[in-house]
Amino acid sequence: QVQFVESGGGLVQPGGSLRLSCAASGFTFNTYVMQWHRQAPGKERELVAGIGTFSTSTFYVDSVKGRFTISRDNAKSTVYLQMNSLKPEDTAVYYCAALRGSISFWGQGTQVTVSS
User: Fold this and answer.
1) How many angstroms separate the CA atoms of 106 and 102, rounded?
2) SS3 13
3) Nearest-CA neighbor of 48 among 35, 31, 57?
4) pLDDT per position as a tens digit, 25-52
5) In which element (H, E) is residue 56 found?
6) What is the pLDDT along the chain (116 residues), one digit of tens a residue?
7) Which of 19, 67, 68, 73 has its CA 20 to 30 A from that of 113?
8) Residue 32 backbone dihedrals phi, psi, to 5 degrees
9) What are 77's strand-pairing partners?
10) Minimal CA–CA distance to 82: which of 106, 99, 64, 98?
């Protein structure tokens, strides 16, 4: 069965950094586009970053460009999100997602809180 193990979330001060990891199993990882989404309290879930199957293309929402970097290691079936210069408005539950056509799998989410 499909499983995700998300890690790396936590509490960090403004300006700090965190690195999220999402280790996947149960599907052919390198055939899926991987994405990170986030959902803040009272807001809709939004796409933060995405990466193609062999890291040939990446996408970032404007609010995180220049601060976040998405990467993947197909040998480890893991996708990462390096988050630098964190702001309070980055506070949310972060979810990894795997997509291929009409198929999608979602992780359970990890909390990121940016606060002094």
Assistant:
1) 13
2) coil
3) 35
4) 999 999 999 999 999 999 999 999 999 9
5) none
6) 999 999 999 999 999 999 999 999 999 999 999 999 999 999 999 999 999 998 889 999 999 999 999 999 999 999 999 999 999 999 999 999 999 999 999 999 999 999 99
7) 73
8) -115, 135
9) none
10) 64
DSSP 32: S
Residue type, 60: Y
Beta strands 78-83 and 68-73 are antiparallel
Q: What percent of the chain has pLDDT over 90?
A: 97
Q: Are 89 and 64 in contact (CB under 8 A)?
A: no
What residue spans of the chain are helical by DSSP H? Answer: none
- Which amino acid makes up residue 90? D
